[in-house]
Design brief:
The chain is about 15% helix and about 35% strand. By secondary structure, the protein is mostly beta strands. It has three domains: about 80 residues, Cytochrome c-like domain (Cytochrome Bc1 Complex, Chain D, domain 2, Orthogonal Bundle); about 140 residues, Toxin - Anthrax Protective Antigen,domain 1 (Toxin - Anthrax Protective Antigen, domain 1); about 120 residues, no CATH class. A seven-stranded antiparallel sheet has the order 2-1-3-9-5-6-7, with no helix packed on it. Strands 12, 13, 14, 15, 16 and 17 form a six-stranded antiparallel sheet that branches. The chain has a four-stranded antiparallel sheet with strand order 8-4-10-11, with no helix packed on it. α2 packs across α3. The chain is elongated. Bound molecules: heme C. Heme C binds next to α1 and α2.
Amino acid sequence: MAADIERGKTLYSQLCFNCHGPHLDGGIGPALKDQYWHHGSSPEAILRLINKGVPGSEMIAFEAVFPEADRLALRDYILSEQEGLREVVRSVYSRDYFKGKRFTPALFDSVEPESQTPLPENLYYFERSKEGVMRGTSKLYIKEAGDYEFAIRIIGRTSIFLDGEEVHYSDEKTDKSTHINKKFSLKLGIYDLEILHEEKPSHSYRFHGVLKSDSGKQFALNGRSLQGNIPKIIKARPGQALVVRKWIADLPPRALLCLLPNQVIVVYNPGDGYVIGAWHSAEINQTPSLPDRSAKPSEIKGTPIPDAGPNAALPGINRFLRYQVEGDTVHLVSLADGEEKTVIISPKGAQSFKLTVQ
Ligand code: HEC
């Protein structure tokens, strides 16, 4: 490991890990080695973010904290942990110009795109693009040397260039004997990857492909947009409790998560009226993970409070009616033996909660 990466790793483990996780896998702040880069995955974008932070968030400007050499070392450490596609940009061009011409990066350089969109998911996806030809440019970070090859669903025509060399060409209209699908050896490092693709004007893009290695590594080239579902941390605001329902692994699906302003989360099961558990210094992380983000439940991050539940002090509840938040306190109203009973949960000290039944 180069000296500055080692230095970056040391600095990371002194400070950044508190929010971004010991293995860059996220916490209060987003993961720094998955595919999703909200603020951009280029070396410039990452350095800018370390320098300037994100005003209004926990991510402060580290310009004033570390000398430049240390900020560069942090950037280089983060970059050294990347794997797969980064800096993905999708450009769309009008179709006519490309008619009858073989796709090359130089051909695309010679004409202006109609649109150019950085894709923070670092996967190709399309909106209503029925028209046009796509050029996808990206960096490919390889952390495992070996023999690689593209597997592309043959729809329309696709050319793929790796560091300027054509490694894949397929076209549903031409004879398969003209197709190219090279196997190539990759060393550890960063490559330029370009995907040039066109489909019939009659349907929207159905481009689909993976890059795979002989040892079984796979990088998806296409995926879904995360729009409307960007990584998010849920916490109560100061002085104000918050109740949410989220899918959390190992908790009943309808569990109510009561987030108290002292960062305590109390999980209440409206099905049986019991408190199932509680955490302090806690928050809900619903940062989606790529590429299986749709399948990943949210998580409670925090320290379990011992003996918080199951709490057997609430017998006889047979139907949950409603909840209500009043300032820092949550009221959970159920029917018990024909009578309304209210479980009241409020913060106690910095790391605990008070539970009463009325
Ligand atoms: C107090 C918590 C905290 C600490 C400490 C912290 N960060 Fe962050 N960081 C965040 C949060 C929160 C965000 C998301 C900001 C936003 O987009 O609203 C973030 C975002 C980032 C991003 C952008 C990620 C993306 O997806 O675009 C980078 C890069 C980053 N932090 C690097 C660092 C580095 C390097 C350090 C250590 C020097 C550090 N952070 C320390 C909380 C923190």
